[in-house]
Write the structure tokens for this entry.
Amino acid sequence: GEDVEQSLFLSVREGDSSVINCTYTDSSSTYLYWYKQEPGAGLQLLTYIFSNMDMKQDQRLTVLLNKKDKHLSLRIADTQTGDSAIYFCAESIRAAGNKLTFGGGTRVLVKP
Amino acid sequence: GAVVSQHPSRVICKSGTSVKIECRSLDFQATTMFWYRQFPKQSLMLMATSNEGSKATYEQGVEKDKFLINHASLTLSTLTVTSAHPEDSSFYICSARRGISLGNEQFFGPGTRLTVL
């Protein structure tokens, strides 16, 4: 079955790195995604990684994928106050029509 | 590129009325659009998947006669909440996927907050 889990909350100081973790259960994931949601807004796609990769870097964002442990992480370098938001990981599975299954979201609070 | 809009952004209606929400892909053609519902401080729940020109596929537990979805063109999908009741109050978000994309990404609209009195 499909199950994606994230920790609820992360507090970090401005300028430090943030690491948001996600675990999933379906090993047939095709792609894994990170989305950002600010209050009252839709979801902004931050980055995604193909399931046969183990790392992807995009400016301040680094995604690590451990397929054996079914663990995905998002590292934000030099975290800024504008990074305060809810971050969702999601997986898509080809056999399920590439529908997205979302984690519960991690609320990140950046303190000045 | 890959901008998705929703209209209206906020709507308040009386119980028993119907409400239509539009989802548009502004700068790309969306072969598939998705409708989600999000309760406060919760994750997104997929309601249905719609492909242009065909009937929507609803997730288990979602009433297709209550949540009518029409995907009339490659840039427009509508969700109509029929005979709305207070328990239908929620944040409704659509997303759109391009026909050809390397990562099968879904691009999300800004959401519509529905309040049923």
The longest strand of chain A covers residues 29-37. Residues 10 and 108 of chain A are 5 Å apart (CA to CA).
